[in-house]
Design a protein that fits this description.
10 helices, 37 strands, 23-stranded parallel sheet, alpha/beta, Spore Coat Polysaccharide Biosynthesis Protein SpsA, Chain A, UDP N-Acetylglucosamine Acyltransferase, domain 1, about 450 residues
Length: about 450
Amino acid sequence: MKQPCLSIILAAGQGTRMKSERPKVLHEVAGVSMIRRVLNVCPDGPAPVVIIGHGADAVREHVGDRARFALQAERLGTGHAVMMARDAIQAHDGPVLIMAGDMPLLTQEAVSALVSAAERTGAALLTSVLADPTGYGRILRDESGCVTGIVEQKDATPEQQAIREVNASVYCVPAQPLLQCLNELKNDNAQGEYYLTDCVALLREKGVAMEAVTADEFTCMGVNDRVQLAQAERVVRARVTEKLMRSGVTIIDPERVVIEETVCIGQDTVIEPGAVLRGATVIGPGCRILGTTRMESAVVGGHTTVESSVLLSARVGEHTTVGPFAYLRPGTVVGDHCRVGDYVELKNATIGNGTKISHLTYIGDADVGENCNFGCGTAFANYDGLKKHRSTVGNHVFVGCHSVLISPVQVGNGAYIAAGAVVNCDVEPESLCIGRTPIAVKQDWAKKRREQGNLK
């Protein structure tokens, strides 16, 4: 029977090269913090143990109840960090998976391969072969190719520094041998620290074989500064766009879009350069997302076009067009076969099927029926300075240009509102509402003013 795996995540470092007040592991890659990305690949087992130190309170609050915590008050190396989890390791009878909290590109496939290798041979570590291994610990092997140990860059001889296979700082080790090794660690090295890497040689002395599982350099990549953070972002984005394209989505220029892993997109949808799609966004099949569109947790029905617009927690139906330059704020629901045109802002509003709001209009806190038409410059005055008020517009209503509906009002089915009206009372169905000030035209007024020198 497969034993559950205890995961330990090292997240106590300050990350000085990030040049940030925020703890390094809380920096985000494609919208998800590095520590959460590592937590997401933990195998089934008891609650993970996160080793915290710098910014401990912020990390604890961010992770919440997804893990247990152990404090490394004094940072004396990776081996010392794992020592802080002694109680959890002592109580565990099975493999222990140790990972760094700044490895956002780790995959479940790589972790599963590592755990499986440890089950076969006793212990395993993740390695990668790099063209430039500078800064990484080198993997030492004997004549038969078995892993014998790891030497850190600062302690390596010139011959050892020439080794290109490097340690990725991910290990899977049986709990009890790991405890024994932790008790035997020494800090007689250039850094004066307790290296977790020394456990590899100690395990070998105890007869525990260590198998190396090799992964690509991106999977094994740690993030130490903003440059590497951007590199990790590009890798995640490339993974996401490749998966979407293989599922039937057309992405014109994958390097010029931002699509988070949580986004779902239907077949035959086309994503043009400049799109930013985040959160729980769902886009149906056959859509076109054009220009600099930004969506956050938006839902868009099939065969809809959205151009250079912002949709925040809004829902749009099928066969609808949105934009350019529309702004759909939270709580907005737009129906099927609608038109939401340029410089239209909708907030907490429901728009019925077939309704056209073509340009320069604000509808906030309102329920609008089907097959309505709003002229240019319409506005709902929904705030009186103290409270928001909601209006209702029925089906087949025509609202003329530059009209203002002062909420709360109700406009009945089939009503017409003349251009320029200020509507501050309910409008009965099938009626015409006119709210214009009478126009006075004074003949020759301009001519006389010019003759008097009072007008150019």
